[in-house]
Amino acid sequence: MKKYSLKLILAFLICCLAQSTKAQMNVTWADTLNKLLVKVQGDENMQGLAAGVVFSDGSTWSSAAGYHGTVPLSKDFLYDIGSNTKSMVASIILLLEEESKLSINDTLYQHIAPVPNVPFGITIKQLLGHRSGVFNYTTHPNFINEINTNDTKFWHPDSILSTFLSSPDFAPGTNYNYSNTGYILLGKVIEAIENKPLNQVLKTRIFTPMSLDSTYLDQYDPYTLTKTGAWLSPTLYFPNNFISFMSSAWAAGAVVSTPKDFAEYAHNLFSGQLLSAASLQKMQLGTNLVGSSTYGLGIIKWGYRGKTYLGHGGTTLQNSEMEYSVTSGFSLVLMNLDNGFFNETARAKLKLIDLLEYIEDVQANGMGLANNLKAEIEVSAYPNPSADYITFDLKTENEVNNITLEILDIAGRKVMETSTANSTLTLRKETAGTGIFFARILADNQWVKTERIVFN
Fold it and tell me: How far apart are CA 33 and CA 29, in angstroms?
């Protein structure tokens, strides 16, 4: 029988333990994420907020806080993803290019008949990146009144183009201006090439391959799930069942989805499971916007705290955010039911990103398993939960010159840090505050362990 060294066996066991821990990311962190979602909803005075996550290990979490009218929100309801639909349309265009059915450098009228107020010479790439100059139909002075006046009217894309277009804003390729019209035109290009309605193309190209069983193009696909509405004020809930509103959005923003499905879509797209590496890279190149943001082809690339994210936002009567951490490999989506809460939703997104980056950081270090074995340190924290103080006892068989205790809040921000040569440390509630925290222990700058602690 072949003999193995103790060191090799221990290394194997550590690897197995780390993999076992990693497979449970959604279970390990679900309670923490649930509490943060509720806290963010309250902090931002939101009446309804849902979120979904796909961790780097593929496990998922989704939850909802607040109300759908008088009914508690559910993670299994349908929410508007709004203009995040544009990333789906852009993805299909790039898939068609990969199959040599078009080039993004083709002009629009190589594929569809001319449209009034849409000049010749516009390329598909310019439409994808909002550099075509075509007038944005949702800013037409008659648009809102027409949509509101007859909420049961179904708006066909051709009717939108014939009713709400004005002269171009600028010559193609000379400037940047966000235009929903560009994506209505791209939807028509897709239908012309595939010879199928857009909702069927979305299903065969994206929804079915990704097993997105709760994602639909509203007003085109039938569904039985509860569709959420919007809070126009803290006391006024609007069902958001306007046929006119959602049909007019079409390829520019009419997809509805559950938080889990939406997060799965983001993860599949940005982790490279839908497009080729070349197409995904092409998607990220475009116009530099404010700060570190770049609008590419249906997506936005931006930086935050030294890390890169890919995503988009969406606004109907609801607000949505979609992000993927290139550095850490998780996807995050949020759907907010409060009309006009664009900034609030963006702030909520950053708070969840902070926590998720911390979670992935903890996970990448195996929750301290390897360092704990190397340093041979045992850590206990008691009483936990506590209403007053928590004592940390550290026992080590090897000499340790410096022990560091870091306390981080639920969003991964450092509350305090202290170093000692003693084997016992005490943390008082008045220092940390009330709530859930994480105590990270380091010995001689080696990560030993992370403990979840609670002050009531």
Answer: 6
Of 338, 362, 386, which one is at a domain's C-terminal end? 362
R_g of the chain, CA atoms, integer Å: 25
Nearest to 330 by CA among 124, 127, 57: 57
Bridge partner list, 381: 392
Same-domain check for residues 103 and 149: yes
Q: What is the CATH number of the domain that holds 410?
A: 2.60.40.10
Which of 28, 34, 24 has its CA nearest to residue 59? 24
Same domain as 201, residue 108: yes
Question: pTM of the predicted model, to two decimals?
Answer: 0.79
- Following CA atoms 61, 65, 70, 74 in sequence, which dihedral angle do they give, to the nearest 10 degrees? 0
**Shared domain check, 324 and 416:** no
Whether the per-residue pLDDT at 17 is higher than 90: the answer is no
Position 272 pLDDT exceeds 90: yes
In angstroms, the first-to-last Cα distance of the chain is 55
Give the burial class of 361: count Cβ atoms within 10 A of its Cβ; 0-12 exposed, 13-18 middle, 19 or more buried: middle
What is the reported pLDDT for 22?
Answer: 43
Q: Is residue 44 part of a domain?
A: no
Structure tokens at 17: 């333990």
| Total count of domains within the chain | 2
The predicted pLDDT at position 445 comes to 66
Q: Pick from 29, 53, 60, 37: which is nearest to 363 by CA?
A: 29
Mean pLDDT, residues 284-307 taken together? 92
pLDDT digits (tens, 9 = 90+) for 214-255: 999 999 999 999 999 999 999 999 987 789 999 999 999 999
- Phi and psi at 56, nearest 5°, equal -65, -20
Is the distance from CB of 313 to CB of 83 less than 8 angstroms? Answer: yes
Domain assignment present for residue 37? The answer is no
Range(s) of the domain holding residue 393: 368-455
Pairing of β 294-295 and β 300-304: antiparallel
Q: Which helix (H) or strand (E) covers residue 378, if one does? A: strand 377-382
Distance CA 425, CA 390 (A): 8
C-alpha 31/C-alpha 38 separation (Å) is 11
* Calpha distance 405→387 (Å, rounded): 20
Of 345, 362, 379, the residue that ends a domain is 362
Residues 357 and 372 in one domain: no
290 and 424 housed in the same domain: no
Amino acid at position 12, single letter? F
Query: Is 171 in the same domain as 113?
Result: yes
Claim to verify: residue 238 and residue 281 sit in the same structural domain: yes
